[in-house]
Automatic annotation (TrEMBL):
UniProt xrefs under InterPro entries: HATPase_C_sf (IPR036890), Sensor_HK_TwoCompSys (IPR050482), Sig_transdc_His_kin_sub3_dim/P (IPR011712)
Reactions the enzyme catalyzes: ATP + protein L-histidine = ADP + protein N-phospho-L-histidine
SUPFAM superfamilies xref list: ATPase domain of HSP90 chaperone/DNA topoisomerase II/histidine kinase
GO annotation, cellular component aspect: membrane
Organism for this UniProt entry: Streptomyces alanosinicus
One annotated GO molecular function: protein dimerization activity
Name this protein carries in UniProt: histidine kinase
Domain Signal transduction histidine kinase subgroup 3 dimerisation and phosphoacceptor per the UniProt entry, residue ranges: 216-280
Phylogenetic classification of the source organism: Bacteria, Bacillati, Actinomycetota, Actinomycetes, Kitasatosporales
Length: 432
């Protein structure tokens, strides 16, 4: 019983009732226009004095409502009303924008017609039924009401009819509530089909979300690689400068200059990334570093931090494709960052081209075990993502007494969407 009462008079049912009343209010101008047509056609001056003529005016008004629903704002306004009043769950269940295709406009016209049709009927019943039902309920208590037109005096000549009139009044109110609840439930059920996005809309939204996620992941990798490497280098440079402050002023000056250069470059990259996050586009942002543009600077700043680095470059970085050169720079940077944070021993970097692939190797003797970090590191995971997107392979781990990061990148971009185009092997979790 409680569930039935909630279905008829609960908060959701009342909101849907309000939605239907709004539909009836929207239908009134069309009914008035229909009455202007019905009146002269039938020769009746007072169309609203006849229920059949009222229904005829209502029937003529609905096609006009369907035509006016083709205005662009109809669909988003109706969708907003359904979200607020009909209890349709899911933000993506209903479309946000105007109808664009012929099928969408046809569904919008059908929905608007149903809303105004059901709303007009329920609104008319809501105006007519409650007064009549209240008279029936209180009729046994007031003898004077038994001679009013609303009381149907001829039907109340029998005492049993008079006794049952309150029950009849309550039944009419329950029937009105049931009609409103049923119409509201039907509209809520049909709303996603008539006002919801099409399959093409859902596909476009999914592609937009995927593209946004890809951009965010790329920006997260850029932040990790640039800021993480800079912080590691600056920490070691500052530590070395502090230890030699009183004994080697020249080294201290070089370390401070390296810190200044590192932080200036990192702030520029950070501004570029934040510009993309803030504005969605950063046309004036500094370009991402590449092997051709900054490999020498990367090696110089790493050596200034006190890390011995030997580099063998057996190819011309300027001849590499821009995308490969950019990702290769970040991979080398991550390999050097690992050595700065964990090894503290000489690092050997080798970059060469063989069999149409760019080969990158970063090696250093195994030092102290890395300090554990909550959730593990993200550097080598980012390397694996970069390599996978380019269709290359990556391996990282201990080989004897040497830690080796080995990456092979194709010099041509893999075909987008090809199944199995990427073959990056997952790197050991927590290695960074």
């Amino acid at each position: 019983m409680r569930g039935a009462l909630r279905a008829l008079f609960g908060g959701r049912a009342r909101r849907r009732w309000v939605h239907l009343i709004l539909g009836g209010a929207l239908a009134m101008p069309y009914v008035l226009v229909g009455s202007v047509i019905v009146g002269p056609f039938t020769g009746v001056d007072n169309v609203f004095g006849s229920l059949p003529l009222q229904l005829g005016s209502f029937a003529l008004g609905l096609p006009m409502a369907a035509l006016t629903s083709l205005f662009p704002l109809t669909r988003p306004l109706e969708s907003a009303a359904v979200r607020a009043l009909c209890g349709v769950e899911g933000d993506d269940a209903l479309a946000h924008g105007p109808a664009r295709t012929r099928a969408e406009r046809a569904r919008t016209a059908l929905w608007f017609t149903l809303h105004l049709g059901f709303g007009g009927i329920v609104a008319g019943m809501s105006l007519a039924v409650p007064p009549f039902a209240v008279v029936l309920i209180v009729l046994p208590l007031f003898a004077r009401l038994r001679r009013t037109p609303l009381a149907l005096p001829h039907a109340l000549d029998h005492s049993w009819a008079l006794a049952l009139s309150p029950l009849a009044g309550l039944a009419m109110l329950l029937g009105l509530a049931a009609c409103a609840a049923g119409c509201g439930a039907l509209l809520a059920r049909w709303a996603p089909a008539l006002l919801g996005p099409t399959a093409q809309d859902r596909l476009a939204a999914a592609e937009a979300r995927a593209a946004d996620l890809a951009v965010r992941n790329r920006l997260a990798r850029e932040l990790h690689d640039s800021v993480g490497h800079a912080l590691s280098a600056v920490t070691l440079q500052a530590s070395a400068a502090r230890r030699l402050l009183g004994t080697d002023p020249e080294f201290v000056r070089e370390a401070l200059a390296a810190i200044e250069d590192t932080t200036r470059r990192t702030v520029g990259e950070l501004d570029a990334v934040l510009g993309v996050l803030r504005d969605g586009d950063a046309p004036d942002a500094a370009p991402a570093p590449t092997l051709a543009g900054d490999l020498d600077g990367l090696l110089r700043r790493t050596r200034a931090a006190g890390q011995p680095v030997t580099a063998t470059v057996a190819t011309a970085p300027a001849a590499l494709p821009a995308l490969v050169s950019r990702e290769a720079y970040r991979i080398v940077q991550e390999g050097l960052s690992n050595a700065l944070r964990h090894a503290g021993t000489p690092v050997a970097v080798r970059i060469a081209v063989a069999d149409g692939r760019l080969e990158i190797t970063v090696e250093n003797p195994l030092g102290a075990a890395p300090a554990p970090r909550p959730g593990g590191g993200h550097g080598l995971r980012g390397v694996a993502d970069r390599v996978r997107l380019l269709g290359g392979t990556a391996h990282a781990g201990a080989s004897g007494d040497t830690w080796r990061l080995s990456v092979r990148l194709p010099l041509t971009t893999p075909t987008t969407g090809a199944a199995g185009a990427t073959t990056a092997r997952p790197l050991p979790k927590g290695s960074v």
